[in-house]
Amino acid sequence: MRIHVVDHPLVAHKLTTLRDRRTDSATFRRLADELVTLLAYEATRDVRTEQVDIETPVTSTTGVKLSYPRPLVVPILRAGIGMLDGMVRLLPTAEVGFIGMVRDEETLQASTYANRLPSDLSGRQVYVLDPMLATGGTLVAAIRELIGRGADDVTAVVLLAAPEGVETMERELAGSPVTVVAAAVDERLDEHGYIVPGLGDAGDRLYGSA
Ligand SMILES: O=P(O)(O)OC[C@H]1O[C@H](OP(=O)(O)OP(=O)(O)O)[C@H](O)[C@@H]1O
Ligand SMILES: O=c1cc[nH]c(=O)[nH]1
Ligand SMILES: [Mg+2]
């Protein structure tokens, strides 16, 4: 597993407003969308393409287009939905699958309550979206499911990561074709498994505390 932290002043600027407790849901949703677009630029650096011949108004030339099989984008419900539009805007040919997961607030164990994925992901590049990589339990389980279905290149796009979660992913997914792209790696987790300084509960800040 490798991790890439996107070091860019626009990312840092938007992330600071996202962290601010005074930022309302509408602004939070817009900033999450904008941040994903910036992270997606890095996350798709190795997206597969193929050569195509085209005619410009002036002459013939050779270019590239996104190749088949199409990349798969998988937001992890609920909070990952806030990252979906920003990602597919940059990957117009992408197919979208869904995994619904929730973390028990006491035990911090993640469980899966919904799964709508292609059964065969052989040879597919997959982009998993979840704003928060805290203990890592959620992403490890989601990525194991994708690799189990044959995905051979998985990139997790997250807004914030905790060092504890990065370590867990490195240990649990050692040797797997996995990349994490993050806007920042924060200091630590607190005793409730929240990222510090973090931004609070991403799902609640996007969608309320239902
Ligand atoms: O790395 P972990 O310790 O597993 O924690 C991270 C997970 O926790 C949050 O989801 P939550 O369970 O709050 O669900 P939600 O998206 O519905 O709010 C977050 O969106 C991640 O999916
Ligand atoms: O800080 C955290 C940790 C897990 N999930 C969140 O939404 N926020
Ligand atoms: Mg939540």
Automatic annotation (TrEMBL):
Pathway: Pyrimidine metabolism; UMP biosynthesis via salvage pathway; UMP from uracil: step 1/1. GO terms for biological process: UMP salvage; uracil salvage. The keyword GTP-binding applies. It catalyses: UMP + diphosphate = 5-phospho-alpha-D-ribose 1-diphosphate + uracil. It holds the Pfam family UPRTase. 5-phospho-alpha-D-ribose 1-diphosphate binds at residues 78, 103, 130-138, 201. One of its GO terms (molecular function) is uracil phosphoribosyltransferase activity. Its EC number is 2.4.2.9. Its cofactor is Mg(2+). Residues 5-208 form the Phosphoribosyltransferase domain. Binds 1 Mg(2+) ion per subunit. The magnesium is bound as Mg-PRPP. GO terms for cellular component: cytoplasm. Keywords: Allosteric enzyme, Glycosyltransferase, GTP-binding, Magnesium, Nucleotide-binding, Transferase. NCBIfam families: PRK00129.1, upp. Belongs to the UPRTase family. This is Uracil phosphoribosyltransferase. It comes from Streptomyces montanisoli. The gene is upp.
